[in-house]
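Quick one from the shared queue. A colleague (R.T.) flagged Cadherin-15 as missing a structural entry in our internal table.

Convert sequence to structure tokens.
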Amino acid sequence: PGAAVPGSPQAWQQHEGARRVKRAWVIPPISVSENHKRIPHLLVQIKSDKQQPGGVIYSIKGPGVDEEPLGIFSIDKFTGKVFLNAMLDREENDRYRLKAFALDLGGTTLEDPTDLEIIVVDQNDNRPLFQQDVFTGHVVEGAEPGTCVMTADATDADDPDTDNAVLRYSILEQGAGSMFSINATTGEICTARPGLDRETVGVYNLTVQAADMSGDGLTTTATAVIYLEDINDNPPEFTKEEFSMEVEEQAVGVDAGKVFVHDKDLAGSPNWLAKFTILEGDPEGTFTIRTDPYTNDGVLSVAKPLDHEVRDRFELTVSVQNERQLEPTAPASPLALATVRVRVRDVNEAPVFHENPRRVSVLEGAPPGTSVTTYTASDPDTHQLQIITYALLYDPADWLQLDPHTGTIRTKRELLHPSAFLQGGWYIALVLARDDAEPPLSATGTLSIEILEVNDHAPLLQPPASVLCGRPGRGGSLLLGATDDDRPPHGAPFHFQLSPQHPQLARNWSITRFNVTHAVLAVLVELPEGSYSLPLLLRDSGTPPQERQQLLNISVCHCGRDGICEDGVLAAATAGAGITLGALMIILGSSVLFLLLVGLGAARVRVRRRALRKGLLQCSRDDMRDNILNYNEQGGGEEDQDAYDINQLRHPELFLSRAKPPMRRDAPLSSATPLAPRKLPSCPSDIEDFINEGLEAADSDPSVPPYDTALIYDYEGSGSVASPLSSIVSSLTDEDHDYDYLSEWGPRFRRLADLYG
């Protein structure tokens, strides 16, 4: 049977169960220590029991022989000895598996290949290695003992199944206090004692060691850095008990100074931020204090104006504490207090008008030199001797003069009213007050002078002459008015009365109030025609009231049927501008009627021009309905004075009452009254003859009145394209006029008011 001899020859053979199946050569595993220095080193000798007389050739193959790493193992092909040719490293390869072969000299296999396993035995040739050179951990200050911070773990490349890789941890150095401990087996670092204080020691640097062979072998070290996290366990404290500051008076929003504090907690953290409070010495809130976010100091500012003359110094009690509450574990301490003394520095202040604006009153027409007022200012700087002088800064009408030393203001000239320099009866002037400091300061005061109205004018009768009928009732009244140069309340309402010196006037005349500015004069008995002078007494409502006796010249005329003077035109021309109420209404009504007639005529002309533009005469038979015809005669005009009796216009009722109709003096005696109704033309083309006949009949009719009337020609054709008269009137621009005043003219114009109002 085959045999293996390690070092010296040694026989062996393989058994399988109780029965030997076949012959085979089997080599048990060979152990060799790593780092073996005696080389070459005989590991084993193999033999085959099928050795022939000619000999056996041995060979091996596998890693370390003909595979990487090459040349580690070799075999003597004739003796079968296996040698180690290089030092082994278990950490690189802990075992090698080779194949051994036995051949005869002819190269024929004598045995099946057998396994040759070489095991590398470990030696403690590797130190432990920490995972990192520096370990970092955090723990809050004041943490309880046993609070774990981090784990400093290491590894060993040696065989973990041997003591070569069994590690033990320890802390070699951590400074005074031995505040931390490490688990020898796991490397976990925890607090060992109470009393961690960031303000005393903020960072701990530990030197940690790991050793193999259960602490007796190779060693290595690392650094563990432990940071203490801050908690609010220290209140802020003032750096000193008293602080002094100085600030100018009248300064607002400026910083007076700082109060300095110190807090042992971490700067910039919420545990460090301070909050200041003014406890005493400032009941009116003159100062405020805030925290400087960069330095944590208190900044004292002025919130309200300071007055050195009122109070020149302040003594404040200020407290400080953290924004965040102290931790319950923090030691108890009293509230930090400091005294802040603020001195108010005196500066020059501008004079002050305590009454601004100053309002005074002066009577209208006051003579020059009249005292208006004394307008002075005071100097707030009572601790400084200063002189204030005055000047007029604004006097637009140059009405005033000012004493520069006393501030007394007088009139320079008479104050007149009305004036362009008055605003609602007030005169505005500006006064400048200046002190004599260096540099000087000034102030401006407004002087408002009310020019009081004086009742120095009596009412004036308007108009001073007029005309009215001498018959009581209709037409026998006159509207009187008055004006007054004074402003309210020295003007209206006016009082009209007959002169008390002539009581006999009350038998023929009466005056009644119409409104605040007018009255109505009426006759009580029928008076003969002629001129009358009535003495009237007019009085205003001023204080005291002013009155004036004036003559009213009245021309009494012959009254017509409607209460209108028959010779009113002549009377008005001789008596003046006065006019009765009835005559005024008639004139206004005639003007409105005249405007309406002019508008109707313009509309008619426009319609005719429109018809001509449309070209109505387009057929062989001329349609004369819308042609413009010259009728030659439309009644009496300016040149018809000789043909007509003007009395028919003034009193038509006298002539209409006659049994026989009036005859026109210019009509031919042979003319006959035309027959009516006339026969209508059978063809529209005969309209010209029809109109001419109507014209001739009108001219020959002696009963026609001598003024313009609308002549009825009986026929104007059918199908006229002309618009109705109402549409013509509506097309005018009368809608742009306001006729609401017609309703105020009385019952005679009620119809017009309904149409156009």
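The domain at 237-345 is CATH 2.60.40.60 (Immunoglobulin-like).
Residues 581-614 form the longest helix (34 residues).
Added to the table.
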